[in-house]
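# step 3/5: fold
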Amino acid sequence: MNKVILMGRLTREPEIRYSGGDNSLAIARYSIAVDRRFRRQGDQTDADFFNCTAFGKLAEFVERYLHQGTKIVMTGRIQNDNYTNREGQRVFSVQIIAEEIEFAESKNAQANAGGYTGGNGYNGNNQPGGYQAPAQNRPAPAQAAPAPMDGGFMNIPDSVDDEDLPFN
């Protein structure tokens, strides 16, 4: 089994490119800093830095919503990225291939931390922020959008059936 779960902040703006050909594929490269769980007495928190790559729709999500300082939780797999450089030396490196990415804090918390101030996850009301369901699969809103609560999250009206929620 090859699975990794990381929570950290993007250290720089993601680099996005598209593959060539008729069916171009989005490729996003970014790095995250992950705080170590333990630290020596009196030392500042140490962090590990991971280079990550996302492909396809996930890369488009990265391009649209992730910025330097955004705190995310991601799952993926570790992949060796070994090659021989121009001087003939063998270079060994590791990267994380992203499979899932979620925001790790609310929009308000990100704003207070100086991070990204965009959306914070799924938004089915065609408002900026988070993943947008394709229009043909998204039901029309039956009523006005619920008012935001403190912390950047929204109340879900009692009239909404749990089966209609995207994260069930």
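# step 4/5: annotate
The two ends are 26 Å apart (CA to CA).
# step 5/5: archive (pending)
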